[in-house]
Amino acid sequence: MITDRVTYEQLLGISGCLALALLAHITTLPLWVPAIVVACGLIRLGLARGGRGAPPGGMLVTVAVLVVPLLLVRFHTFNGLVAGTALLSVAAGLKLLETRTRRDIYIITLIIYFVSLAALLEGDSFWLLAYLIGVCWLTTATLLRLTSSGPAPGWRRSLRYAGRVLAQALPLAVVFWLLFPRFAGPLWQIPSDSQTAASGLSDTMSPGDITQLALSDEVAFRVRFEAATPPNRERYWRGPVLDIFDGHTWSRSPTTQGPSPLKPLGPAYKYTVMMEPHRHRWIFMLDWPSTWNLPRAELSSDYTLMQNEPLLRPVDVLGASYTQVQSTEPLNPRTRTRDLRLPAERNPRTKALALELRSTHADDMEFLQAVLAMFAQQPFFYTLHPPALSDDSVDEFLFNTKRGFCGHYASAFAALARAAGIPARVVTGYQGGTLNPYGDYWILLQSDAHAWTEVWIEGRGWVRIDPTAAIAPQRVERGLADVASADESLASAWQLRTRWFSGMRLRFDMVKELWRERILDFDQDSQRKLLEFLKIPEPDGQKLVMVLAAAMFLVLAWLTWQVRRELVPRSTDETARTYARLCAKLASAGIARMPHEGAEAYALRVARLRPDLAGSVTNLCGQYSFLRYAAPSTSVTLGQFQAAVRAFRPKASGQSSA
Amino acid sequence: MVTLRQAAVKQLRARVIRRHGRDSLPVSINRRRIYILPTRFGFMLGAILAAMLIAGLNYNSNLALAFAFLMSSMALVTMHHCNRNMLRLSVDATTEVDAFAGREAMLEFELRNGSRVDRRDIEVRCMSGAAMDSVAAGESATIEVIAPVAQRGVMRISQFELRTRYPFGWFYSWTYVQGSITVYVAPAPLGSRVLPSGSAQGAGSHSDARGDEDFSGLRAYEPGVPLKHMAWKVLARGGEPVVRSYSSLAAQPEWLDWSKLDGLDTEARLSQLCLWVLESDAAQRPYGLRIPGKELAPSGGAAHRFACLRALAAFGSAET
After folding, report:
1. Does B118 touch chain A (CB under 8 A)?
2. Does the global pTM surpass 0.80?
3. A136 noted as active-site residue
4. Do residues A161 and A141 make contact, with C-beta atoms less than 8 angstroms apart?
5. Mutating which of B31, B48, B52, B70 best tests the A interface, going by the most A Cβ atoms within 10 A?
6. In what order do the strands lie in the sheet with B160-164?
7. Do the beta carbons of residue A564 and residue B29 sit within 8 Å?
8. Phi, psi angle pair for A454, to nearest 5°
9. Nearest to A215 by CA among A500, A477, A496
10. Within 13 A of B96's CA, how many CA atoms are on the CB side?
11. pLDDT tens, A81-131?
12. Cis (ω within 30 of 0) for the bond into A55?
């Protein structure tokens, strides 16, 4: 009979599914949350194994009273994604503990479904999606074993059935996914967990900051150029521009003005930047951006593209930039003051050096060339492992250590320029990039992070000078990988990159990029393109819904057919099937075959009721009898019979339908 | 809420009768008579699916949306599967059922599955009973629904229900079959009076009287006669089926008579008569039944017993 009690087997199944669903959250949840759930599961399973039921309610209450405040202390809220997931997981664990009947298991399956979805709100890989669909499949199969009367069907059968339901659901899901209207922004503010740290460059730069990035092979962003690609030495991707120097650390000043106008001197490059979420506000654009298609972003006065909120998910920006420009307006006096400021008590030897050089080089450009020449001629080294520097970092670097990474050179160069009365600032960002020939786009890794300087030259405006080019020109020409240096860490970084850029990795990255472009970034615009592809004029939201309805109708019709198809008993006998078709045709013409009637008797009755059909029906039934009962003959073949039945189209007649 | 639902179900049942009329069993369940609704679990799933969809849209996460749509589509497919689980199932029922008042009636239903898929967890609900079973592809299954019956009489059941929650318990589909089943509820066999004997020596000489030497002739076969009384030789020669008649069988029929039970009220009389019928039958003695408005000639065997019990069940009702 029907029993509602849960068995050990069923408990084991559902506990397994819950554990698998939680596994998708293992990196984000604090470890004690899954630990509690696993403990609950083990206790309940142990009890069930010993033939005992759920523990008393008091124990549950105790656990809940202990755990929920713990969650609150840890997250301060239940509104965030991670906090909510943690709460749901604990709820599922407690439910597991008190599971008595099927209804309790039903609740757990619902939690499993939702927790699986929550994992997809954070993650974005194909494998995660595939894994979670697997979990959902398994959970649904468990459900099938649960709802059956009598002995539960075996795992294999259940999995096959649930798999078939999943497969039949797939076309409908694809139609929904493609055509369900997307909104431009979130429906309401997404509660953000301040858990995940920002990555990549920050808006301050101390000596040695960028070296930490140099060893990372994470992708910062990808770029696809529309037509022309700028040469390597012009591919500077502008990030935060730092204009305040305290003698040790460079930082950004808050700017309120817009950018000053520029006159382009070279061609504009059109490209798409595919940003990875880095949780900062800036978007890395090529040198001097002129256009971009991000609605909630604008250029700051130093030409960095800033969004009005941190970048939390991947975004594509279609933009255009110049690499050679000229300012049409003189430098704003306030900016000039700011960009000349050096802390009074710091780096005295640097200031002295600048004044000394300035006395022999009156021209700004000549002075700067002299500084670069000094970097090239004196024993300065380009290294990933520079010694730590004190508060007078520039003095120490220029006169003692002489070993540094791009940040050190940019910092020292800008300080020298300022000391000589030339407005200067440090620009951080990325430089170069590696072409992925499989996908025809450029990959910029964190190790491509770079720092350079911009100096104000009267009559020309801001001019980019990269002091690293003086000490390690290969770095700028070909990227970090090719810097021939005895420096060990550089060599290892180089090896790292070689591994990264082996064909497999590039191919893999290409697939990842396609996944991102086609799936993750699918939006209103993509839907519009889809409708255009379907040759629908002037696509808009309303038409989208209409197409969705039409497509759903088709898929549901297919589904109905697909599901009911199996109800028709399959006859392996072709002859019998053809005969059944003949009978069906006659039945729809008004004369159904009686169950007891043989072919000959049926033909006679048809002939009596419908003299107009007599000839053909007698002939067809005769053929059937021949095929069925006579020895294999040459007079009639199955093919002929089938063709004749196919061609047979009796007309329904009103008076003979009795 | 519950009463509202009950009212709706009642209305639906009435409408089903109006729309489909009576069914002649066996009946094949077509798609027009299958209804489907989400279960409570199904409604909860619906709420979760809506939450999933909103979360996906709000986070603008295409993967989350893909998952939410896949789950929603699975629910839709499941609806089709739930509906299919009953579709084109052929249902038959035993139309005449005997029972005793105060005990259970065993209602037999036969489900025939001519398709290529198993039909799992089909529940038949009839009167106050319900039973569930599965029917494998191309096979049939008998489902016995046990329902308690309290009152003596003839019950006419005009409708029974088939229901299934297969496959995942998210939906339940159901159908009403307008098949008529008659339940003859005989009175509860109760009473303290001694079984009457036709003559004084009847009871005493009973055992010798059944000896073969008391053979008194042949008479036509009727169902219910013990097989060992069959005249097989006559049948083997190609004659009509006849049974050997014995003097004790032929000579001493006992009349179980309503009028001899003075001092009891109607139901008690019927109960006593019922007990006597069963006792006589168990003792394999011929008996006749005489109640107001009906008289059954003395005989023996199962058919006669059923006839008597049904006569007792029908007593006082329009049914005879």
Report:
1. no
2. no
3. no
4. yes
5. B70
6. B35-38, B171-177, B160-164, B119-126, B129-135
7. no
8. -130, 130
9. A496
10. 6
11. 888 888 899 999 999 888 888 888 999 999 999 999 999 988 888 999 999
12. no
- Shortest distance, CA A169 to any CA of chain B (angstroms): 5
pLDDT for res B210:
43
pLDDT of B103-131, one tens digit each?
A: 999 999 999 998 888 898 999 999 888 99
* pLDDT bracket for residue B60 (50, 70, 90): confident
Cβ-defined contact of B63 to A123 (cutoff 8 Å): yes
CA end-to-end span of chain A: 47
Q: Residue B301: phi, psi to the nearest 5?
A: 95, 170
Question: For tokens 């994470």, what's the residue?
Answer: A218
Contact A124 B57 (CB under 8 A): no
Chain A hits for B76, CB-CB cut-off 8 Å, are 169, 172, 556, 559
What are residue A318's DSSP bridge partners? A272
pLDDT one-digit tens code per residue, A162-200: 999 999 999 999 999 999 988 766 666 655 554 456 677
Distance CA A575, CA A580 (A): 9
The residue annotated as part of the active site, out of A40, A406, A583, A621, is A406
Q: For tokens 């990933």, what's the residue?
A: A384
Give domain B22-186's CATH superfamily: Immunoglobulins (2.60.40.10)
Concerning whether A466 is annotated as a catalytic residue, the answer is yes
| Top-confidence residue, A37 or A76 | A37
Domain ranges of chain B: 22-186, 206-314
Band (B259; pLDDT cuts 50, 70, 90): confident
In this predicted structure, the answer to whether residue B240 has a pLDDT above a threshold of 60 is: yes
Mean pLDDT of the A42-46 span: 90
Q: Which residue has the tokens 């196919």?
A: A646
- Least Cα distance to B263 among B316, B315, B192, B185 occurs for B192
Tell if the CB–CB gap between A133 and B55 is shorter than 8 Å.
no
pLDDT at A634: 62
Percentage of chain A with pLDDT > 90? Answer: 22
Distances (CA, A) of A102 to A56, A93, A107, B155, B174: 18, 16, 9, 36, 21
Using CA atoms, how far residue A328 sits from A302, A304, A461, A463, in Å, is 15, 19, 8, 13
User: Taking CB atoms and an 8 Å limit, are A117 and B87 in contact across chains?
Assistant: no
Is ipTM > 0.85 here?
no
